[in-house]
C-alpha cells in the first residue's frame, strides 16, 4: 500500500499542471505514505511552528536502520538535528528568533531535548528554568550530572542566581556530556545557586529546594549515592552559612526533650532513616567544620545537638585555656556570639513574645560571649543530668573544673581580692603553697605538672605570676592594716606568705 501511495504521489507531483494540485490532498498522501522524506514541508499551505513540528513527528518512525532503505530513515534523532539547526540559525545568544525564546524552548521540550531546553531557558528566566527542571526531574526525564567532580563546588553559593545566569557562573546551566555522549545538566548545582535569592530570608524554602536534589537518589549504582551525598553537603553548607542551628537542626531542652528542626523533619526525603544517621551525616560534620574554623559557640551548640557531650567539654576546655593564656593587661577574649533565635520560632501568644520560649534550651545556654560563662552553663547542665554526664570522660570533666577555678583566680587577682585568690589557688593543688620550704616537696609538685592536661599546662605560667602577685598584695594589705605588724598572728601570716613566695620562686626555677 505504501509503495502504491508513493507511486501516485510522485506521479501527481511530476505530471500535474502547475497550480492544479490540491495541497491538502497532497498533504494527506505525504503524511499517510511518508512520501519524499527529504522534503519535510507541505507546499501551498501556511504552517505555524506547531504545524511544522507536528508534521515532523507524523513522518518520523523508529525503524531498524540497518534493514531500512536510507531514504526511508527518519526518526527522533533527525528531528532533534533539525531543531538544533534551527536553534543555531535563529536562537543564538542575543537573538530573539521567530516567536521569541519561548518558541524554541517549546520545540526543544517536544523534541525530548530536555537538558538543552533547560540550558537554553536559564539565561532568559532562571526561575522558570529551575522549576521546569524540577518537574522534568520528578518524572525522570532529566539526566543529571554523574561525573564525580561535576558538582564539587555546589556549595559555593555566594552569587545570586540572576548573576550566575548573566556573567559570573554561566557554567551552572551548561549542558555537558557523559562517557556515553549523552547530554546531562548539573541539577543539584542549579538548585543551589537558585536558593541564593532567599537562603537567608526563608530558610525553610531553601531547605525544601535543596532536598529536591534527592529526587535522583534512586539512580542506579554510585550515581544515586553521589546525589544523596551532594544533598547532604548542600544542607550542611546552608547550616554553616546561615548559623540558624536551632531552626534547621533542632534543639534540646535541659530535661533532654529534643525539638526537631526543619532538616530533621525531612529525614526520609533526604535518604536518612533515623535520627542517628542524621546526627552523623549532617550535625557532627557541620560541628567539625565550625570547630576547625574556630567558631567555639557554634561548635559547642552543634556537638551538643549531636549528643557528643564529651567533645563539647573538650572545646570548652580549649576556650577556657585560651582565655587564661591572656595576660591581665590585655583585653579579655570574647567568643563570636550565636545568631539570635528567629522571631518565627517564638510562640504565638503575644504575652510570651518578649521571652525566650525555651529558656532552658541548648541555644540559650550557649548564646554567650564569655568562655567561663559558657563553661559554667554547660557543666551545670551536664551535672544535673546523669545521662549527659555518663557520656563525658572524667578527665575532661575534671579539667574543666580546674580551668574554671583558674578563671576565678584571674577574676580575684583583677579585683585585687588577694585572699580569695590564694584560697582558690590552694584548692587547685597546682602550686606548692604548703611546701614550707621543703625542696623534695617542691620537686615532687613540679614532677606532677608533666601529667597535667595540656589545657592546664598552658595556664601554669600565668597562674604562677598571679600567685606571686596575690602573695605580695596580701602581705601589703597586712602591712598597712591598723596596728602594723604588732599583732603576732598577723606577723606570722606575713612570714608564712614570705615563705610561700620563696617556694614559688624555687618551683619556677
How confident overall, as mean pLDDT?
A: 81
Give the class from helix and strand content and strand pairing. Answer: mainly alpha
Strand content: under 5%
Q: Care to count the β-strands?
A: 4
Enumerate the spans where pLDDT stays under 50 for 5 or more consecutive residues: 148-170, 343-357
Main sheet: which strands, in order across?
Answer: 1-2
Query: What is the rounded distance between the termini?
Result: 112 Å
Helical content stands at: 55-70%
- Gyration radius, rounded: 38 Å
The H-and-E topology, N to C, reads as: HHHHHHHHEEHHHHEEHHHHHHHHHHH
Biggest sheet record: 2 strands, antiparallel
Number of separate helices = 23
Outline, from the CA principal axes? rod-shaped
Précis, in short:
With 509 residues, the protein is an all-alpha fold. The protein has helices at 2-15, 23-33, 49-59, 76-90, 101-110, 114-121, 126-138, 161-166, 187-194, 203-211, 222-242, 245-249, 275-292, 296-305, 309-324, 362-366, 371-383, 386-389, 394-414, 418-428, 439-448, 454-480, 488-508, and strands spanning 176-177, 183-184, 250-252, 258-260.
Notable characteristics:
single chain; 509 residues; mainly alpha; two-stranded antiparallel ribbon; two-stranded antiparallel sheet; 23 helices; 56% helix
Describe this structure in words.
The chain is an all-alpha fold and 509 residues long. The chain is built from 23 helices and four strands. The protein has helices at residues 2-15, 23-33, 49-59, 76-90, 101-110, 114-121, 126-138, 161-166, 187-194, 203-211, 222-242, 245-249, 275-292, 296-305, 309-324, 362-366, 371-383, 386-389, 394-414, 418-428, 439-448, 454-480, 488-508; strands spanning 176-177, 183-184, 250-252, 258-260. The strands form two sheets. The protein has a two-stranded antiparallel sheet with strand order 1-2. A two-stranded antiparallel sheet has the order 3-4. β3 (250-252) and β4 (258-260) form a beta hairpin. Mean pLDDT is 81; it is low at 148-170 and 343-357.
